[in-house]
Amino acid sequence: MSSEQEQESIRCLVAKVGLDGHDRGAHVIARAFRDAGFEVIYSGLHKAPEEIVQAAVQEDVDVLGISILSGAHDTLVPKIMDGLEEYGAKEDTLVLAGGVIPDEDRDELKAQGVSAVFGPGTSIEETIEFVRENAPQR
Amino acid sequence: MRTDEELLEALLAGEHRALARVISKIENRSPGYRNLVSALYAHTGEADVIGITGSPGAGKSTLVDKLAETYRDRGETVGIIAIDPSSPFTGGAVLGDRIRMASTVGDMDVFVRSMSARGTLGGLSTATADAVKAMDAFGKDKIIIETVGAGQNEIDIVRTADTVAVLVPPGSGDDIQTLKAGILEIADVFVVNKADRDGADRTVRELQDMIQLGDGGGGIGGGDGGHHSQEVIDAHDDWDGEVDDAEGEVAGWTTPIVETVATRGTGVGDLIDEFAAHRTYLVDSGEHADQVRQRYAEEIRTLLREDVHAMLEDELADRGGIDDLAESVRAGETDPYSIAGELLAPVEDCLDELDARD
What we know:
The complex is a heterodimer of chains A (about 140) and B (about 350).
Chain A: E1 11-16, H1 24-35, E2 39-42, H2 49-58, E3 63-68, H3 73-86, E4 94-99, H4 103-112, E5 116-118, H5 124-134
Parallel strand pairs in A: 1-2, 1-3, 3-4, 4-5
Chain B: H1 4-12, H2 16-28, H3 33-41, E1 48-54, H4 60-73, E2 78-84, E3 93-95, E4 110-116, H5 123-138, E5 142-146, H6 152-158, E6 163-167, E7 189-192, H7 200-213, H8 230-234, E8 257-259, H9 268-285, H10 287-318, H11 322-330, H12 336-357
Helix pairs in contact in B: 1-2, 2-5, 5-6
């Protein structure tokens, strides 16, 4: 029936996890995603991994962008990935990491299931393009 | 990728991921979503649906968070639908209500879902009503819909709720505001949140005056508006609120005013008691049946409008799109009324033919 015109919108959760209290980058990304026509849910600061998992599952987001500047990515990201797996959400969620993440840690994050790591200096356009191209088809 | 049947089964079995996915299908108008929603109806009707509205910054999200926490303490499960606006230009949105719902994190039995307005023609209120169905079928005891509170759209959405609370922050204007038509009329309960602030007493007084005047329906507000019979109003001329009329029927509902300080949880228990009292009133007075009937009537109308609209859009596309038609009006060749008449003529002919056959 022609009336079932699909109205899909890319849904993203922009998440700040752990003790790091710098959210300017997360705000910039949230706004840029909004202006790109995405629906953005922002987690707020100081979230535990399980809170991020709960939000990602309930909101059924296509994309989870984790912003970390504290250096705790190697302990926090695996916890989030495990949580997503528990709810069957790991496979079809595009997980991105952004912030201050040393090059030598990137392979480990990718092995965990993070699709891309965007370090300082990444252009917003590049990030949006990546999301458009890689957001999961469900 | 699961089939819709499997998805429905998983939802009914209490799988959160399935509930989340069903709501996405509803929002996306994914192929087959209508059958899915149809199938949900058989499993609905148990949940209390509460709408919370009020101007931006009134403290809705914080109050919803505390309500959810209190319901959870009482052993009930909660679903929350938080509505935020989207850009009319890009369709993009920042859905930020979740941030203020921190009391219940880690508790999956509080299921928070953020929604934005996609599409048009009552699409958001249809999607909201369908998402409520999904949460109801899932088994949520209480479903809270939180809206932005900025216009007529809100009124459509909160009509999905059995009980509507309107938040009125202290100092939100002079008393003429309470005489204006709109958002205040839909209240079943008024909440003066931030009641510890200056001006709260005055706001409460203004609301009391408004309720006593019985003007604008605020004092007798029902979620569906306009279905209060004159008898209910007549039976209620002393505005005592507890008096039964001669037949011993339940008197009309007098909108209570509850003062809360959501950040501290003050008054939340009282508010929950008023919600329960309104629920009891609805059921005892028979108004609930009316309300539900009107809601379904509106759903049927909305679906029909959407379908007819889609057919007409197809028809427009077949004729080369609306731009050419608009251009011909601009050029002075025709006018919108003539075009509408021409486009609808074949539809009218078809219906006439069907009538003739009967």
